[in-house]
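Priority: medium. Attachment 1 of 2:
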């Protein structure tokens, strides 16, 4: 069974917490977890299936660890790799920039050959604009998490999305192998 590399950046711990919750649902035996503050291009290159977690800061800014690693990401060949994205943002406080960092990361890795899975509906979110929204499709480029305004919806969203990507990544056992939690 090939493992999934889950890479995240987190300043205040929310993105790290979501990454840990994803790993628990998909199975710790399936997912290797990495903080982008401590990785190299080679560690990402070792995985065919990847999950990237990135929060958006303030007015559409990239989280600091991702920002420091950004030029490295632009050099990685993602051809033959499948990537699922999750982003954190505040849709009310920063509704004009909701999940922009996820959209920017998506554009970089798709431009380098990545296939994307884990698209997520925009239904149930209230925001003005987002670089992570796929125009005209009613979808985000990955899972949208708002721990500031909709924390009570995070558990259900994680349960559903993890089942979705288990099927899309063709994990052994598919969605049936994903642990649903009430965390």
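Attachment 2 of 2:
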């Amino acid at each position: 069974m090939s493992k999934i590399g889950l890479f995240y950046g987190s300043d205040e711990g929310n993105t790290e917490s979501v990454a840990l919750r994803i790993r628990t649902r998909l199975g710790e035996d399936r997912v290797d977890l990495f903080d982008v503050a401590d990785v190299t291009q080679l560690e990402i290159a070792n995985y065919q299936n990847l999950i990237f977690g990135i929060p958006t800061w303030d007015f559409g800014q990239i989280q600091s660890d991702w920002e420091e690693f950004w030029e490295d990401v632009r050099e990685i060949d993602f051809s033959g790799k499948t990537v699922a994205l999750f982003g954190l943002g505040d849709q009310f406080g920063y509704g004009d920039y909701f999940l922009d960092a996820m959209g920017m990361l998506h554009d970089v890795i798709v431009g380098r050959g990545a296939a994307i899975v884990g698209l997520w509906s925009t239904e149930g979110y209230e925001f003005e604009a987002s670089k992570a929204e796929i125009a005209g499709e009613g979808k985000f480029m990955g899972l949208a998490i708002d721990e500031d305004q909709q924390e009570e919806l995070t558990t259900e969203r994680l349960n559903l999305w993890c089942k979705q990507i288990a099927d899309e990544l063709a994990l052994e056992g598919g969605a049936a192998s994903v642990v649903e939690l009430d965390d």
